[in-house]
Amino acid sequence: MRIGRRQLLAGGGLLAAASMTGLARSATAQAAELKKFAIPPAIGRPERLARLARAQALMQANGIGAIIVESGASLDYFTGVQWWRSERLTGTVIPATGDPIIVTPFFEKPSIEESLGIPAEVRTWHEDVEPLKLVADFLRERGLASSPIGMEETNRFFILDKLNQHLPGARVVSANPVVRGCRMIKTAPELALMQAASDITLAAFAYTWPQLKAGMTVADIDAIIGQATRAMGGSYDGGLVLLGEGTAYPHGTRKPQVVERGINVLFDCGCDVRGYKSDISRSFVWGADPTPEQRKVWDQMARGQQIANQAAKVGAPAGSVDDAVRRAYESWGYGPGYKLPGLSHRTGHGIGMEGHEPINLVHGEMTALAPGMCFSNEPGIYLPGKFGIRLEDCFYMTAAGPKWFSVPPKSLEEPIGHSGVS
To answer: Contact, 70 vs 89, CB < 8 A?
Structure first.
């Protein structure tokens, strides 16, 4: 079972089960009756074949003979095989020309073939065989033993280590020009799935916010959001819900938190729709009028989002978006740089098949923004010991500039916002 940062740090999921109070029981039950969203089709064979063609063109352009990709989002992206990581290697070798192979344990072959979405030979290994020998043999067969071999950036060390043992002198390079070159640029079917995921998360927030009651815990609130998300068609593995002073720390606190009048409330949640993610944050004040300080910081943070949006121009370095926000914040007395009070984290991260994926909107990132790239926009403002405000909305780049998946709210009086397609 995977426990994400939200579950670990905010106390969601397993870690928070013991702190549920029952105050959410009715709202959670009602959420189960919410209407499902229309979900776009899953990624199909033609799309995956186009990905392979793009990957092979990038390999040839970068002088890479083949790439090795183990289980994870990139394996799913290229092959359709959805598999977990263990000590037993399941992965693909994609050559610059010709069909790939899938390497997997012998007893897993039928399961692998169920989800395989491309033409590929499945080569199996028994428990007493080193799977990287199969990889080395394939590279020799294709005449690639002396060519640069690209490693996907999340591959574990043992893959490189064992490959070097079975293919001495292997020239291993980064596969980033290929894998990032494909995955960072989303196609229309990918964007449609991300839009659906965003719409579901936003609707779950819209349902949950009016259900809050005094005394609710973060686990109560997370249960409502989770049930609403699942009822409307998204997969949910726990969100980040923060209350009061906990909102001053981007990933929360383990201290007990309950809803009370005038408290600052932060939702930071997402869901998965057919393998594609959403990530949205909203900040509220519950049960009382906002204080002047709460309103001021909320308004400043909302302005920070707009500054980031205006700075996101095709061809501009990704880091320039973060720089634009930070200049404004420093002029308002925050920082400087990443110091507190102010914005202690990057302005945004890449998103797609993973909630966080390359590249980031962070100082020093020189990758040029291009149509199809997708990011979060979340330049939060944090006042340690008091509270924090984070609004987070994701967007994708078009030739004309950024387009929101979810449109940020305009004020604390209307704190949800709306879908980018409505």
So the answer is: yes
